[in-house]
Amino acid sequence: MSGRVDRREFLKTMALAAGAALALPYVARGKEAKKRRAAIKGTGRAAAEDGGKPDIILCMTDDQGWGDTSYNGHPELKTPNLDAMAAAGIRFDRFYSAHPLCSPTRASCLTGRSPVRYRCMSWGHDLPLREVTIAEAVRTAGYATGHFGKWHLGGIPHADGGTGRGLPETFDPKPRHPGNQGFDEWFSAGNWYDIGHEYIYHNGQQAPPRPGDTADVVMDVALEWIGRQAAGKKPFLAVIWFPSPHGPHKATPEDAAPYAKYGKKKANYYGEIAAVDRNMGRLRKALRDLKIAGDTMLWFCSDNGPSPPGSTGGLPGGKKWLTEGGTRVPGILEWPARAPKPFVTSVPACTVDFYPTVLDLLDIKMPDQIEPIDGISLLPLIEGKMDRRPKPVPLVSGQQVRLIDNEYILQKGRLFRFAEGGRKDVDITDQEPEVLKRLTAWLDRWRASVKKDQAFYTVKRR
Ligand SMILES: [Ca+2]
Question: How far apart are CA 135 and CA 142, in angstroms?
Fold first, then answer.
């Protein structure tokens, strides 16, 4: 821990360590929520230029492990731009992907709902159009919306011959590409892609290959679009999903060169992350140059744990595993206007939280919202007012759930704490019978609500 650690916080941390259940007000409602929104309207450029609407950017990498940054202690890889972003903003030490695989986590980012609710259970499963997306929501508040990079939620042809294992056309005849999920502009690919890949579609038209690393290409297009929104003083949501460092690992010679001493495999892997890092630096600089950095909510995370030679930083498991290493990923928020003092938090946060956070921020209520939403608004945490997560977050894979409730973890009927030092789940089932009872009851209710949701999606995927 570093940053905002005062006596009050220290005592709370100690209480956490002791496992005390603190009853704190987690989510501002009524008057307090109003006050908060009024405060937003008074910050920086937002008030002056676009009626109090912060720009929102969600960046995500593909298969980057928790340990694949130098700020998380990687011994070989250098990520100076992510390190600078983490040092300037809020560094989430326990940021989770909702699932240890691509497509389900991506769906959770857009909907705030666990992917198991709409049977997006594995890679290649698409996001049904019936679900409400973050892009559809912010559009109602006058935002421009753009998706750039890997989509993997259906509706875009891919080099593997199709869109993976999606819903049949008979279920819903409209393709489930970004254009039909709330995005005005999209430069997106069906699945992973690498340097020179021709399966990228720009607003539905196949785009010719462009030079540079895939991260350069995605950022070129995204920055051009962001520049146009800024010039038109239009608030925007940009979703930038890098296709790196997903295999096959293929870096440019320039990005791989500094890592040549570690062998070709690692040099290409590290080189891909170096390209992402460089482009995060480009993005941060562009926001400053456009004078919109202050009130831009800039997120960075990964979609699941790593494959070799990626690093979990010692957390058990990796991609595909419903474990800490499979789901805990780098997580950073930089937002100078609302989080001017950097800090590190160990409150668990998850990809399901983006949607409710943005709805809370912009005071949006979607009339066709499908309940329940599994995430929470992180605004109180961002303002330094949340020491504990108000409700558990369910991480899923197949029929399995790993329920994260602050310091507790419920999985397969057993209760655990994760020992950060020993880097492993420690079984405390027999020591905390009341917690076990509470979380088991919570999970039973949650499973019942999932069953209700799934009834709408009985269709078999291809
Ligand atoms: Ca992935």
Answer: 11
Distance between Cα 15 and ligand 1 center (Å): 36
The CA-based angle 69-72-76, given to 5 degrees, is: 55
pTM, two decimals, is 0.89
- Ligand 1 centre to CA of 182 (Å) is 22
| Span from the CA of 375 to the centroid of ligand 1 (angstroms) | 20
Ligand 1 centroid distance, CA of 430 (Å): 36
Q: What is the tens place of the pLDDT at every residue in 243-291?
A: 999 999 999 999 999 999 999 999 999 999 999 999 999 999 999 999 9
DSSP state of 260: G
CATH of domain 50-391: 3.40.720.10
CA distance 191 to 202: 15
Q: From the CA of 269, how far away is ligand 1's center (Å)?
A: 14
Query: CB neighbours of 249 closer than 8 A, spacing ≥ 6?
Result: 265, 268, 269, 271, 272
Rounded Cα–Cα distance for residues 451 and 448 (Å): 5
